[in-house]
Each structure stands twice: as C-alpha cells, then as structure tokens.
Amino acid sequence: MEKHEDVQYCFQDGNSSCRKAFLSTSIYITLYIFFSLISAVTVFLNLLVIISISHFKQLHTPTNLLILSLAVSDLLVGLIVIPVMTVAIMESCWGFGEYFCVFHFYVTFLCTTLSLGNLVLISIDRYVAVCDPLLYHSKITITGTICCISITWSCCIIYDAVIIQNFVNVQAPSDNLISYFTSYLALFNSLINPIIYAFFYPWFKVTTKLILTLKIRNL
C-alpha cells in the first residue's frame, strides 16, 4: 500500500495517465550527455559533407549529389529527430502537446524513409559504375540524378503524410537501460553514413581540412 502511494503520474488523473519513470541522477545526466553528443556529431559530420559538396563545383557529380541528398536527410535526424526523441525517451511525461507529437513522428518517419531511399539510389549508382563502367556516364547523368532525388523526396513526403494520418499510440518508455539504446539503433545510421560514404574519399579529407581551417573563404 505504501508503494502504491509513492507512485506518481504525469497528470492528476492516475487512471488514464502514464506513470513517471525515475532514473538515478548520474544515469540521467550521463544518458543526456551521451545522446547530446550523438546528435552534435551527427549534425557536424553531415554538415561538413553538405558544405563540401555544395561549395566545390568540381564535386558536383551524380554520386556526390546522391551523397549530398543523404547528408541532408541525416542532418535532419541529428538536428530534429534525435533531440526530440531523447526527451521523449528520457522523460516519461510528454509535455509538448499532441500536434508536436504528430510532427515529430512525421519527421522521424520522413528522415528514415529518405535515408533508405537515398541509400537505394547510391547502391544503384555504384552497381552501374562497377558492372557497366564504360556506359556509366551516359546512363547516370546529373540531370537524371537530380530527377531521381526529387522523385524520392516527393514520394517519401507524400507516403509518410499518408502513414501519419493513422491514430498513433505513444507508450511511456521503460526504465530499462537496454530500451534506451535499442530505440536509437536506427538513428545511429545517420552518424555512420557520412563516415562510410564520404570520409573514405580523398576529396572529403581535403575539403574538410579547408573548411576547418577557414581557408574555404579564400576559394
């Protein structure tokens, strides 16, 4: 009986409200710092890719345009999805209202589908480059790549808008630490993508050095 009285709810009506989940202060602060670093690194890496490809015209190739599109979607993950999801997971009580909740779900689904769509386009691009290198430049053009990117973004925006129209039930997060990390597994992809698709290219190492040393202003 004493334990029941100690239970606290997000709202006064305990019958229809989620219970507040409590973490120790050390774990609470550590998780917030960890997820904040993940968000910051994701934004930083993808921003480097976006600036590099956008600024240097010699990097305006079909493959790099696909990487640019992927970096934009991953930037949205680090800038919007991860911070809001961190609050949603860490705080058992959602205090931002229903409309922002729907917006967050929409952006999450949109960024996820955009990343997958861009990865498919990159896979097709690499497949043609490897299997049919002599005809690659005639089959894969900048105009065609831009069209494919535009179609992918348009389809994802429309598809996710339709999906988000269903009644979405948001469950309170568990106080199990494993649940916190499994919820982020899909989002880690946005941090890894710029490393896989950009960092291993020599041009990215050069442009990154120019950006970080502020020499890009003189170019």
Written description of the protein model:
This protein has 219 residues and is mainly α. It has one domain (33-218): Rhodopsin 7-helix transmembrane proteins (Rhopdopsin 7-helix transmembrane proteins, Up-down Bundle), CATH 1.20.1070.10. Helix content is 70%, strand content 0%. It has nine helices and no strands. It has helices spanning 2-6, 25-55, 62-90, 97-131, 136-139, 142-163, 177-182, 189-199, 202-212. The protein is globular and about 60 Å long.
Give the tally of β-strands: 0
Helix content: over 70%
Order of helices and strands: HHHHHHHHH
Note the gap between the termini. 72 Å
Can you say what the CATH homologous superfamily is?
Rhodopsin 7-helix transmembrane proteins
Q: How much β-strand is present in the residues? A: under 5%
Class inferred from helices and paired strands: mainly alpha
The low-confidence runs, each spanning 5 or more residues with pLDDT under 50, are: 1-5, 170-175
CATH class: Mainly Alpha
User: In CATH terms, what is the architecture?
Assistant: Up-down Bundle
Main sheet summary: none
CATH-derived topology: Rhopdopsin 7-helix transmembrane proteins
Radius of gyration: 21 Å
